[in-house]
Amino acid sequence: MFCSRRSIRAASLALIVSLMPHNALAQQSPPGSLEGVLDRLDALEKQNQELLTEIRALREQLKNGQAQTSPPAPALEDRVDVAEQRIKEHAETKVSASQKFPLSITGMFLFDSYIANGTDNPAFLTNYGDYSLGAPGGGATLRQSILGLDFQGPHIFADGRINGSLSMDFFNRSGSDDVLRIRRGTVSFDWSRRSIVFGQDKPIISPLQPSSFARVGIPPLSGAGNLWLWLPQVTYVERVPFSSATRATIQTSLIQTDETYSVLSSTDSEYVAPSRPAIEARFELQHTWKSESKITVGIGGHASTSHILGQSIPSRVISADLAYKPLRWLELSSTLLHGENFANLGGIPPGVTVVGQSVTPIHGTAGWLQLAFPITNRLTVDIYAGRQQNQARDLSSYEISRTLIYAGNVLYRCAPNVVLGFEASPDRLQYLNKTAIASNRYDATVAYLF
Q1: Cβ distance 400 to 376 under 8 Å?
Q2: 149-195 per-position pLDDT tens digit
Q3: Domains in the chain, please, with CATH?
Q4: How far apart are CA 215 and CA 220, in angstroms?
Q5: Is 31 helix (H, G, I), strand (E, B) or coil?
Q6: Residue 290, Ramachandran bin (φ over 0: left; ψ between -120 and 50: alpha; else beta)
Q7: What average pLDDT does this structure show over 288-293?
Q8: From the CB of residue 261, how many other CB atoms can be counted at a distance below 10 Å?
Q9: Rounded CA gap, 39 and 6, in Å?
């Protein structure tokens, strides 16, 4: 015969009460309260059952919700097939070096169509590179396209690494038998605090340049504040972190100058040493704040000696550069130069004046400024201008006293690696005898970056 759960609980309580001492019973509630205790236990048990039922229901709802939002995991065989296909594609497209170190192809396919109008430009200046100052006309070219290689070498002692790069284009002078022209190329031994760099690059005293897809074969503002010649050099770099937001960089470089444009006369050029050793140094201080704002300030100096007509002519330059980004939509960059005889680094030629057997270094001041407005992630507007002013007392009447170039461009990134551009640039030259040359150039470009 079965007993109810309630009768069992009552019998258990009666047994406990009979076993309790008499003095303890005297302190308990009267017997009539036993029924109330049983009622409360029944109520608590009922509430527990209801809570368990609600918890089970919530778990079922959670499982159903996850099943609806999460796609079913692919079968193991499907995942293996996908992985094998990706490995096969990588094997077909990768480029491997003979020494089995990572190697990547970089560069830019650049189509440039242009219209220029103005007076004819002297042949030496066109050959020198400021091709925007040419005869009236127009055309299109792929010669400014760039082909490059980036490579990573082995780890070396003290947790260092060897890295390198090579950049070439098709912008050789007309009549040259060479198809490719080396622009920049470096091999660097890098550690966390220092680097030793061997190769060919811009002078370290002029590290910045304006943004342009119209002037790539010869960088923008050549001869108007941008010392651009790519010269062989060995550079030592020391990085000094002051904090997570502030650091200094010290650079020293042994560089080989290009004396080709130190003089204008072909007769005098026969008595010019074609290249000379030089030493350069630069100090840079950089500070960042917020997520996108930073400022970089640098000062530098150059010293070398040109050998012309058996004479030693000093070449001295001091520089200051600034890169400042105070806001997401505004960037400012500039370079200032002052010195003598710096056509051997990319200043407007010549670097010296030759009269008979007298050789005089030309003193000058140059600089440029760019304002960039990244309006959106795709659209950027750039405005830049540069000039070089030579001292009249160092010049003869047929030499250039001043250059002035200013330009504006609109760059639109229609795809992650495709940039459409339009640029307009009025350029001016003035000789000591007041003769002036003017040219206006308009470029439309399509750049495919890879």
Answers
A1: no
A2: 998 888 899 999 999 999 999 987 655 667 899 999 999 999 999 99
A3: 5-26+33-65 (no CATH), 103-449 (2.40.160.10)
A4: 5
A5: helix
A6: left
A7: 88
A8: 24
A9: 9
